[in-house]
Fold this sequence. Notes:
Blueprint (H helix, E strand, L loop, with lengths): L1 H17 L6 E3 L14 E2 L3 E3 L10 E6 L5 E5 L10 E11 L8 E2 L7 E8 L10 E7 L13 E6 L12 E8 L8 E12 L13 E5 L7 E6 L7 E6 L5 E7 L6 E4 L7 E9 L2 E9 L1
Antiparallel strand pairs: 1-12, 2-5, 3-4, 4-12, 5-11, 6-7, 6-10, 6-12, 8-9, 8-11, 13-14, 14-17, 15-16, 15-18, 18-19
Amino acid sequence: MKKILFISALLISSLLSAQTPNMPFSQNFDTTTPGTIPAGWTTYSFTVMGNNHGVGGTQAISTEMNSTHTVDSVTTPPIGPLASTSIISLQYRIAENSGGIYPQQTATLVAGDQIVVKAYCTTPPYSSFGWVTATTINTASSPPLASGLSFSTFSYSTSSLPVSLTGDYVQLRIVVTRGSTSTSDYFLDIDNFTVGNSVAGIFTNASNPTTLSIYPNPSNGNFTVWLKNYQANNPVEVNVYNFLGQKVKTVTEQGVVNNQINVNSLGLEKGMYLVEVKSGTEVSNSKIQIE
Length: 291
């Protein structure tokens, strides 16, 4: 009996050690040795790269897609425990390397080029579900998959997963696919991967979500918020929060011109910020890096 209890204690201890709380989770890859990946991550052939592959010339985790390398993936360690307000966020860039200083030119994206974010719950009973698709970003999605010399920001609420994982731990997998008709050889760079809990009161209306894009991102001056599916008859309010949850800037527009709102970043220190947009009953959020 003592032996059984001892073995049971070891099993429970190992499970608890594997599920060490690590929220909020953040990885910018800057302290990882180039040519490797962070501890706890797994991959087919992604690797951390410097030489301008990261935001602002820093490091990122990257993979090069070409005619002989059309699918790749990278997986995080277990992350949690999640809250009902947890947000997955990352910055990505797709760009060609034509020689010289990277990046030099954008890639031509086609149908079939895509990034899929998958989730696997590491705690029963949902662990039996296997990997489930959280979202797909491609040329037909809204906002669409983007290629450019600057980074795009992607955010996703874990409350939109097929099952509620509040209090649970998940691994997240990013799967990139190069379209079969593509003629572009390009890098996918991923930086500033975070999973955190959104500021209280911020939510996304899933029935008709406001699409929110921010550019340039990163920004070292003013930035522009681009909106789609917002309620045009209502004032639009843009709130900027630091990661202590403190509101540091508010911009209100009664009439939005060309679906765009310009925000002056004067007075904001360098770092990552949460941008919340309110329009009537619609609320959406994204992140911006101020440099």
